[in-house]
Amino acid sequence: xxxxxxxxPPPTHLxxxxxxxxxxxIKTCKSMAQLxxxxxxxxCTGLISNPIVPAQIIAFCCKHELGDMEYARMVFDxxxxxxxxxxxxxxxxYSRVGCPNSAVSMYCEMLERGVMPDEYTxxxxxxxxxxxxxxxxxxxxxxxIVKLGFSSNVFVQNALIHLYSLSGExxxxxxxxxxxxxxxxxxxxxxxxGYNRSKQFDESMKLFDEMERMRVLPSSITLxxxxxxxxxxxxxxxxxxxxxxxxxxxxxxxxxxxNALIDMYAACGDMDTALGIFDNMKxxxxxxxxxxxxxxxxxxxxxxxRNYFDKMPERDFVSWTAMIDGYLQVNRFKxxxxxxxxxxxxxxxxxxxxxxxxxxxxxxxxxxxxxEWIKAYIDKNEIKIDSFVxNALIDMYFNCGNVEKAIRxxxxxxxxxxxxxxxxxxxxxxxxxxxxxxxxxxxxxKASITPDEVTCIGVLCACTHSGMVDKGKKFxxxxxxxxxxxxxxxxxxxxxxxxxxxxxxxxxxxVIKNMPVKPNSIVWGSLLGACRVHRDEExxxxxxxxxxxxxxxxxxVYVLLCNIxxxxxxxxxxxxxxxxxxxxxxxxxPGCSLIEMNGSVHEFVAGDQVHPQSKEIxxxxxxMSVDLKxxxxxxDTSEVFLDIGEEExxxxxxxxxxxxxxxxxxxxxxxxxxxxIVKNLRMCVDCHYVAKLVSKVYNRxxxxxxxxxxxxxRHGSCxxxxxx
DNA sequence: ATAGGGTTAG
Length: 724
Fold this sequence. Notes:
The protein has 38 helices and 6 strands. The chain is mainly alpha-helical and 724 residues long. Among the domains are: 101 residues, Tetratricopeptide repeat domain (Serine Threonine Protein Phosphatase 5, Tetratricopeptide repeat), CATH 1.25.40.10; 127 residues, no CATH class. The chain binds one DNA strand of 10 nucleotides through helix 3, helix 5, helix 7, helix 9 and helix 11. Pfam families: DYW_deaminase, E_motif, Eplus_motif, PPR, PPR_2.
């Protein structure tokens, strides 16, 4: 509502009004304050009764950058019979301020009051539609347009193409396009951006070619859209062609176009050209900088990306997310989390893209507390849980060992896609719920979701981790016939794992010998792992040799071989391998355990002394040793392959990183709190034994995620059933 | 008296 003060007389510094015709004044008017003064003058002089005057006042409010739609509506309501110029302007105004629903209401009112829309009405009305309004009103408005005979107007056609591509009906949009005259470059632009919107970039490219054939000259906007498609398709050839267009047609390289060029070159990995354009720009905005940052992150060059990120004059949530995602791509999870903290300190609001990156990092680190915090943040800020966020949450919970919450997210998701189902099958499998994983798979089939290669790996993985050899074999045999999926090297690897872990080493070897694809080091690695569990040194030697032929630098193979020789008491052979390792300069990957406590991740390596609470940790360890021995513990050093005495071996396993992490967990959390640890390698037998006893003696649940699976220790036993 | 199209991240 208008207040009395708004209609007060103009301040003295403005020219006096009555002498000047109000229409020309409105044309040069700069602000709402000025407009209100002009308005009040026209009321005083009675000029307002000329309908052109309120119409112009309304037009100002509807068109001007600073125009106020409430004021427009107030003036509008004083008009007895507004004509369609006025109605059109009101509709345009509501669209301009991003209120498509108000624009639609205005349009409906117009019809109710018997004023016929004209060909200007529809472009105004449709301009700022959202997906929702487009879905809701699109068809009906199209009907009106046809009935009123405006469907041959090119502006209306363009608006319709825009409308249908917004509502996701690109093929209907294409129908309108095909029936249009195609002489107008904007028609092409709208159609191309429609294809981009629905990620049909190849169609965008085809239209660009066809445009050339039909000799429609592209505008800089066409080129921006086509460059965007090139960048998504990583099509450097067409991208360069567009660049040549810009030069040949002497199209002014405005910033948006330069940004699109940078993005295209960066996406195609040509950073030299991208930087060449970037360096020569007159002015750069946040998009120019972000395009360079993502260019480097896509190449895995996070250091360079970070240099540019740090130099940015301003950063928005996209830039932060791009940089965060860069660290994620190269598995630098701790940097992901610390950059996220910086982002929060800078008061930049994350969106669902950011959330996915952070959750993925939490999943890798097993950082449940931070993951839970993110979940709470998502709920509190009403960030929508789309399938990307949902799947990331499922992954996070499973990878932190919280099966129950993972399932809860899955059950609450409105749209579960193939990825969601696959995530659940995998999650159940690695957490020791093999039967449940297979049950999920049947439910997935019942829900008519088609499994893919990855889903099949999940199913086989479930069988492996729960020792369901027959079910695994049956599934494998039916993969092609029932699900139409040809087994690839990863599936054969699963079969080797399945048979090998169950002790069928010969059969596993047969699978390798008979597989139609060349076995890779992972397949042989599965066999080698099985040889360790079942202490078959001969087969192990053969498998190790195969791997070393493929990957001579694979340190893990030497270590595994050492473990096996140690367990089989083959000391001479052990020495040979040890010497080979020394000669070839191969080092063992140090074992490392992560534990999250009060929101930060603590990292331990064997014999760690750098933790600030080191003293307390070691005295807790001594205390544990006494308590556990009382419960029957004696150290198992069978896998230690260092050439040292028994006592030293005991002291070596005593200082393993997961034991330090457990001790730290015990002293830094209250009774009954679950201790969650992530280990980068496989757990050793002694640590596995200790964890079982800890869960019994201290009545604590201990969850250890190792390289391939979870160990849930409860009441003295483990979910892996000592089978890992 | 009034019209339309574009760039960055999973």
